[in-house]
Amino acid sequence: MNTVSKKTATPETVEPTNTAFQNTLKSSDTEETIDIWFYRPIGYQIARFCAWVGITPNTVTIISIFFGVAAGILFYDQSLTINVIGMLSLVFANMLDSTDGQLARMTNNKSRLGRILDGVAGDFWFISIHVAICLRSMNEGWSALIWVPGVLAGASHVVQSAMADYYRNVHLFFIKGTSGSELDNSRDLQREYDQLSWSRNFGMKLVARNYLNYTKLQERFSPNLQKLLAVIREKYPNGLPTKLVTDFRAQNKPLMKYTNIVQFNTRVLFLFLWLFIDQAWIYFMFDIFVLNPILIYMCVKQEGVSRYFYQQIQTARANEYKAL
């Protein structure tokens, strides 16, 4: 969806500094504190090295999958020493996850495949972690019923991550335009998917199908936001007014903290806590009964913001019509 021009919503309007490091960040609005002070600086140095030796962002993402999956495998063992090695492996996987995006922005090597791989990487990490915790719990005397909360927590994680990622990209779309956002819509993705052939493009068509389903999931959970984006696409084909960008940012920025809470850092800090006290199963309960209510609250608030701006645009349109 190409509706925002750089002239109406430039990076300079939201990013006060223009250092090489700052340019590898998405936006100060959407970055977590622990990322700014820990993951991003380390990721930046790794990205510089990768750019120097010619390693691509997608290669970094694939490497991160191995470290993330290895972490899950190491969480299966009840030895705290082995678990700590797994924690370090997961932290390093997340460093690489930070690196791939920074490297892509640094080298201007962005692609939809890279975005898809980035999301798939996290799925692989947490599938490994959930399976390991279920098997570990069964070794500790739990029945096979432990797979029920394990699967429910896994499904919750998928929705939490999908919506957090979506709302972040919506915010970036408003404040930076298409150049600073990775916001997709199912209409365009469906058209691209239909153009692929199962016989000639089997791998890409399978990936495109999964990504299309992922995007449709995001859109189903945000009906008011879809109405807002649709009217923006129609009314402002050449770029958003500066006032709309400023007002949206002011109302929407406080909601970014909820997208951060249901993402990687919060859940992993608590996962490490449960592993340290040898009660890994609590991680499932935390995902279901703590993060899900935050997800619901995040969606409700975001829908409220979308409804407000949709009504504002419709009212302005009606007033313009009456003035004719």
Draw up the topology in text.
Layout: H1 33-53, H2 57-75, H3 80-107, H4 112-139, H5 147-176, H6 186-195, H7 202-220, H8 223-235, H9 242-252, H10 256-261, H11 264-276, H12 282-323
Helix pairs in contact: 1-3, 2-3, 2-4, 3-11, 4-5, 5-7, 5-12, 6-7, 8-12, 11-12
Explain what this protein looks like in three dimensions:
The protein has 324 residues and is an all-alpha fold. It has one domain: Four Helix Bundle (Hemerythrin (Met), subunit A) (Up-down Bundle). It contains 12 helices and no strands. The longest helix has 42 residues. It is globular.
* Share of helix, binned: over 70%
Number of helical segments?
A: 12
- Biggest beta sheet attributes: none
- CATH architecture title: Up-down Bundle
The CATH superfamily name is CDP-alcohol phosphotransferase transmembrane (TM) domain
> Per the principal axes of the C-alpha atoms, what is the gross shape?
globular
The CATH topology annotation reads as Four Helix Bundle (Hemerythrin (Met), subunit A)
Q: Which oligomerization state do the chains in this entry correspond to?
A: single chain
Order of helices and strands: HHHHHHHHHHHH
What are the low-pLDDT stretches, counting only 5+ consecutive residues below 50? 1-17
Class by alpha and beta content: mainly alpha
Mean pLDDT: 89
Terminal residue distance = 30 Å
State Rg. Answer: 21 Å
Q: Can you tell me the CATH class?
A: Mainly Alpha
Strand element count: 0
Total individual domains: 1
